């Protein structure tokens, strides 16, 4: 068995007794001599590794005594013996650290102990920078002088040869300590923030508390030069003077936790989490912690998102260094649109305005044009009382002056008509453009297009300009331009290109209102028009019902909508995707006309409208009535969806594998005679038939009649299937034959698929029945076809 005995000053009787009988005694030369250990039982301690080899080689039944100076727990030997897998007993003693603190009568339950035995002093220096009371176990090649140079504002207690007759304890300023030339080994150094009589040092470290309104204390936990640079960058961006915790994170994070209101950890998220976990107390008092990755790409609030201020800090870091804040708290998944991601140019105090937006404080919207904004929460409006921030939508270069934090958004609303002599340099063209814009206070960012005459479409100066601006060059033929009524026609121009105006006429041809008539310099002309604000109407297909069959495009349209309108159950299906502030109008069955009218009206008023339909919006749905009702003055987009027949086809197998038709059995909008005519045609053509709106509570006669018509030309074994609530939680599938089929299986939420003469059932490898209409491939075995 191995026994490690500590000692300070005096060897105990127990140590002496064991030394007399042990097979091996390990210790310093002087103590081995004092214990009277014969050379063959001695292992002289200097380096640990050879000593460990001797210890390891000893018979486990023999006693081995290791004499360690101070407390063995402050000595690498116990660690090394245990890690080597040996059993060990430890007899404690007064450690040099305890003795040093005792020498200056300082309690040390609040101290930090850092060993610099065989290690560089960096960790100790870093710890002492932020901790008021640090004991450093020095080593021969790094000691008090180095500490004093690095920590010029600290007081040093140098305790040398503790327990020895020549023990000495000195209290020194940094200046004195750095100039020492008589340091004796071994020694321990206490690095103190003040003299040992300082009451603040005697009192226990107070828990973190801060006067309300005081600037929060920010600390960076760094561990590499790169992290230090990043911390500098963050501080500069935030305009704060932070604290640095540079060194062993396991020591320093708890320190930072006590001293800071906000901690930026430059360690990995996992490492930070492990260190933070044991410190967590309450989200009200814990500091906020933000982890910034090595590359500075992400700022992740780990704890204290709200009360701790970590979300806010992550956002500010994001803006400061171009990192993405990864916010996971509920209000930040709030789904609020980011002002800088609308696709419009922006300028101003994005952070300030976003803050107000998120905090639910009143934000004023000022629009100089009716360009639709994305949905904004209730606190944002054009008549906000006592606003704390402002969003200005304008194509003017400057927002009207205001003391409020402001974000200016520039919609693409300007059209610039231009003409020029052949070969005019881009610089000349650009100069005219920027001069004209700035003379009229207009924003370059709002330019949506450059327009001109077709003969100038290849003009190199124009091509370069539109490339630089990132806008299209749109050209019109001379005769179309000649037809425009313009304020500044020119006979000279007409003589050259066949129209009296290029710049003004092309602006008008593009549908814009002329706001700046023709301006010119030596070689170019320029006129500016403003496009009328256009609302937008998206007719959005939601698919059969399950979220994974809702297309990405549909989701985008829903998120951008300020107004969502549709039949109640469809609206319910996607309600969660609507952003806060989106108006929602869920209408009843049979109010299609009112629904369409409401959607168009809102779009005309400048809103982003989503009119939602189940399945595809053009299949027995709202796209046709919308387009028919007239969409003057608005932009219309049809967003396709997975229609019921496709969803049902996939569930059944491949019934639509060859020519097929869809028919609606609803005679609400179609004369029944017409429907019958088409049923006959489908029967004649031997088409697979998908029957939409097959049967309602009141329309029970139609389905049997339809099957009668189709059955007249198809055998009784013809497959027929019904799928109710396809892709919804209550999905139900019934596969049958014309002979056995019961119309009662069908309701309004069903789609009926009647096979053609070639449609058949097959069994899958999993033993399931599937409906298949063969494609008549020549290579398929005939008996199966
Ligand atoms: N625009 C829709 C069709 C609207 S007509 C689309 O493209 O799917 C309404 C009819 O569609 C219903 O009576 C039913 O026959 C069919 N239908 C729509 N969704 C369905 C679903 N999930 N399961 C089964 N049938 C559905």
TrEMBL record:
Pfam families: CbiG_C, CbiG_N, TP_methylase. SUPFAM superfamilies: CbiG N-terminal domain-like (SSF159672), CobE/GbiG C-terminal domain-like (SSF159664), Tetrapyrrole methylase (SSF53790). Pathway: Cofactor biosynthesis; adenosylcobalamin biosynthesis. It comes from the Bacteria. The keyword Methyltransferase applies. Residues 6-176, 537-741 form the Tetrapyrrole methylase domain. This is Tetrapyrrole methylase. GO terms for molecular function: protein methyltransferase activity. One of its GO terms (biological process) is methylation. Residues 255-332 form the Cobalamin synthesis G N-terminal domain. Residues 414-528 form the CobE/GbiG C-terminal domain. InterPro entries: 4pyrrol_Mease (IPR000878), 4pyrrol_Methylase_sf (IPR035996), 4pyrrole_Mease_sub1 (IPR014777), 4pyrrole_Mease_sub2 (IPR014776), CbiE (IPR012818), CbiG_N (IPR021744), Cbl_synth_CobJ/CibH_dom (IPR006363), CobE/GbiG_C (IPR002750). Keywords: Cobalamin biosynthesis, Methyltransferase, S-adenosyl-L-methionine, Transferase.
């Amino acid at each position: 068995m191995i026994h490690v005995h500590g000692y300070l000053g005096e060897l105990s009787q127990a140590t002496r007794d064991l030394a007399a009988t042990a097979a091996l005694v390990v210790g310093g030369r002087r103590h081995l001599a004092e214990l009277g250990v014969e050379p063959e039982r001695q292992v002289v301690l200097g380096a640990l590794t050879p000593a460990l080899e001797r210890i390891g080689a000893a018979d486990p039944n023999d006693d081995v005594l290791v004499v360690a100076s101070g407390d063995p727990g402050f000595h690498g030997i116990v660690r090394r013996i245990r890690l080597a897998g040996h059993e060990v007993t430890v007899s404690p003693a007064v450690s040099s650290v305890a003795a040093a603190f005792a020498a200056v009568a300082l309690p040390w339950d609040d101290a930090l102990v850092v060993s610099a035995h065989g290690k560089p002093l960096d960790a100790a220096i870093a710890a002492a920078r932020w901790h008021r009371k640090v004991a450093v176990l020095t080593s021969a090649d790094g000691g008090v002088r180095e500490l004093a140079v690095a920590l010029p504002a600290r007081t040093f207690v140098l305790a040398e040869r503790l327990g020895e007759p020549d023990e000495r304890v000195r209290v020194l300023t940094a200046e004195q300590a750095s100039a020492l030339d008589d340091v004796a080994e071994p020694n321990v150094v206490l690095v103190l923030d003040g003299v040992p009589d300082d009451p603040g040092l005697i009192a226990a470290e107070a828990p973190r508390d801060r006067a309300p309104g005081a600037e929060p204390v920010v600390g960076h936990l760094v561990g590499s030069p790169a992290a230090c640079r990043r911390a500098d960058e963050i501080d500069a961006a935030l305009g704060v003077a932070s604290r640095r915790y540079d060194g062993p994170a396991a020591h320093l994070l708890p320190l930072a936790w006590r001293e800071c209101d906000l901690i930026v950890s430059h360690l990995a998220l996992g490492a930070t989490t492990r260190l933070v976990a044991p410190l967590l107390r309450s989200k009200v008092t814990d500091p906020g912690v933000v982890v910034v990755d090595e590359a500075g790409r992400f700022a992740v609030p780990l704890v204290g998102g709200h009360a701790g201020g970590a979300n806010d800090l992550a956002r500010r870091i994001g803006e400061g260094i171009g990192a993405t804040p990864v916010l996971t708290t509920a209000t930040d998944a709030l789904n609020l649109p980011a002002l800088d991601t609308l696709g419009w140019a922006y300028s101003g105090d994005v952070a300030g305005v976003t803050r107000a937006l998120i905090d639910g404080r009143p934000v004023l919207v000022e629009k100089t044009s009716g360009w639709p904004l994305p949905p904004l929460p209730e606190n944002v409006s054009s008549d906000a009382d006592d606003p704390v921030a402002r969003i200005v939508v304008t194509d003017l270069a400057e927002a009207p002056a205001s003391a409020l934090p402001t974000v200016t958004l520039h919609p693409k609303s300007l059209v610039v008509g231009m003409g020029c002599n052949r070969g005019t340099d881009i610089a000349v063209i650009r100069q005219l453009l920027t001069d004209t814009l700035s003379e009229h206070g207009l924003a370059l960012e709002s330019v949506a297009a450059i327009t001109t005459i077709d003969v100038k479409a290849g003009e190199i100066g124009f091509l370069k300009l539109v490339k630089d601006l990132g806008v299209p060059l749109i050209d019109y033929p001379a005769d179309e331009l000649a037809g425009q009524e313009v304020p500044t026609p020119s006979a000279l121009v007409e003589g050259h290109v066949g129209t009296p105006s290029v710049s003004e006429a092309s602006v008008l041809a593009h549908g814009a209102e002329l706001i700046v008539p023709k301006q010119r310099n030596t070689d170019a002309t320029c006129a500016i028009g403003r496009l009328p604000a256009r609302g937008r109407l998206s007719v959005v297909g939601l698919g059969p019902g399950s979220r994974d069959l809702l297309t990405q495009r549909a989701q985008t349209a829903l998120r951008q909508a300020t107004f969502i309108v549709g039949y109640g159950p469809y609206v319910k299906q996607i309600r969660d995707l609507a952003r806060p502030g989106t108006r929602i109008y869920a209408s009843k069955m049979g109010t299609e006309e009112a629904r369409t009218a409401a959607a168009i009206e809102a779009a005309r008023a400048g809103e982003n409208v989503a009119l939602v339909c189940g399945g595809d919006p053009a299949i027995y749905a709202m796209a046709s009535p919308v387009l028919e009702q007239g969409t003057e003055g608005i932009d219309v987009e049809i967003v396709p969806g997975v229609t019921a027949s496709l969803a049902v086809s996939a569930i059944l197998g491949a019934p639509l594998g060859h020519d097929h038709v869809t028919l609606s059995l609803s005679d609400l909008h179609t004369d029944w005679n017409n429907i019958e005519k088409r049923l006959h045609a489908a029967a004649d053509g031997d088409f697979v038939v998908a029957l939409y709106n097959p049967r309602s509570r009141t329309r029970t006669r139609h389905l049997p009649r339809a099957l009668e018509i189709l059955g007249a030309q198809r055998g009784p074994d013809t497959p027929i299937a019904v799928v109710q609530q396809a892709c919804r939680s209550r999905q139900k599938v019934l596969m049958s034959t014309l002979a056995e089929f019961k119309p009662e299986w069908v309701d309004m939420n069903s789609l009926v698929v009647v096979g053609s003469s070639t449609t058949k059932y097959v069994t899958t490898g999993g033993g399931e029945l599937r409906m298949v209409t063969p494609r008549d491939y020549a290579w398929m075995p005939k008996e199966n076809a």
